[in-house]
């Protein structure tokens, strides 16, 4: 799929004579970010896909929040990978150096974190889609790291389209055309072992210093005891399966991936977010419907409006950065990235990932009251009419009752209007006066409406689902009430 996307991009890029350097948007958080590419060799495992029977050798990129100092424009991907992609697309008329045109902004040198930030950055592992390099998520992951997360992206050799190592050798993927359940389960199991091995390395002082140079001599830089995991496509399935078998991870996120492996039937006891494209729901994916009843902890399903499968990557940003024709852009949007727009897609996705990861790591805030930013003009989410939202931290949940008519205003005879919402120990319930919904209805599945994503300064709003609920109700003349634990 990735090659089809790039074929359209590069064909029209050459027709328009694209300039040599294409800068990508800078990260939006308060930290500059240091990138470090490293090779990790698992001496305990023979690579099952290596015809020579070598040890499993992974490539990872770490994204470390650092000082807000000088930055450098650097290549988006390394040379051998760029040449590989250029050669593949020669039949579409591209010339040497096309893929090397992309640039990202990174720190110029390893520096301690700014004094305004406390360090103790939570460690987050990321697994990419099948047949997709970890490098195609660099912009998205760099933006996430700029909000105070230490991110590790992992390439799965023979699974990614190409993996490039520091000594110049490369491994070209062979799994891009797998189709059977057995093949997916096999690839998934190898990926899960990869992710667990990488987490192991963060607890090895020598390896940790190699992949996170800023951590050398600074034990407080990273928070290693509450790791989280997320991934895109098969990487999302990898996150779910890894979360099930490894208790060191406290929560996970699936970005638009169908689920495979035993987690579908066995489920999860820890919090899990399923974040799909506009058409990816439990109704369209049997694996999502199957796993949902078995998610016993906090769970949430989101859909991003006007998005496609590869909206959850750097491709929307890459397409917007190029001066390609409207015709070419429409083709790519229709099949692969949607019409939400590159920068807006990245902002929405990173904001919700950030808020969710903070919840996984730190729990709910002491007060569930949410304030609405003045510039929040449009609702971000709208709920489906059925379902349940819950989390696993309610020891003594309060009694939740519908608000009085004096509080919400009694609708006149014949009127049909929503009532208020009550936040009960983190559980949101929307009460309505409509005759068919007299009982409290809890709503867990939301669809993101990207129409007017607000320009929120600084950090992403906490618990954006609740914030969106409040915005929705305020528009109808009601508001959220609060019950404290």
Structure description:
This protein is of the alpha/beta class and 485 residues long. It starts with a helix and ends with a strand. The longest helix is centred in the middle third of the chain and has 22 residues, at 181-202. The model is unreliable at 12-19, 107-111, 113-117 and 365-485 (pLDDT under 50). The chain contains 13 helices and 19 strands. Helix content is 29%, strand content 24%. The protein has helices spanning 2-15, 79-88, 138-145, 181-202, 205-211, 234-245, 263-266, 286-291, 315-321, 326-337, 342-362, 405-408, 464-475, and strands at residues 22-23, 32-46, 55-66, 71-75, 102-107, 121-127, 150-155, 162-164, 170-172, 222-232, 249-255, 272-277, 299-304, 381-383, 418-424, 427-432, 441-442, 445-448, 480-483.
Topology (SSEs and partners):
Layout: H1 2-15, E1 22-23, E2 32-46, E3 55-66, E4 71-75, H2 79-88, E5 102-107, E6 121-127, H3 138-145, E7 150-155, E8 162-164, E9 170-172, H4 181-202, H5 205-211, E10 222-232, H6 234-245, E11 249-255, H7 263-266, E12 272-277, H8 286-291, E13 299-304, H9 315-321, H10 326-337, H11 342-362, E14 381-383, H12 405-408, E15 418-424, E16 427-432, E17 441-442, E18 445-448, H13 464-475, E19 480-483
Parallel strand pairs: 1-5, 6-7, 6-10, 10-11, 11-12, 12-13, 13-18, 15-19
Antiparallel strand pairs: 2-3, 3-7, 4-5, 8-9, 14-18, 15-16, 16-17
Helix pairs in contact: 1-10, 3-11, 4-6, 9-11
In short:
The protein is α/β, with parallel strands linked by helices. It has 13 helices and 19 strands.
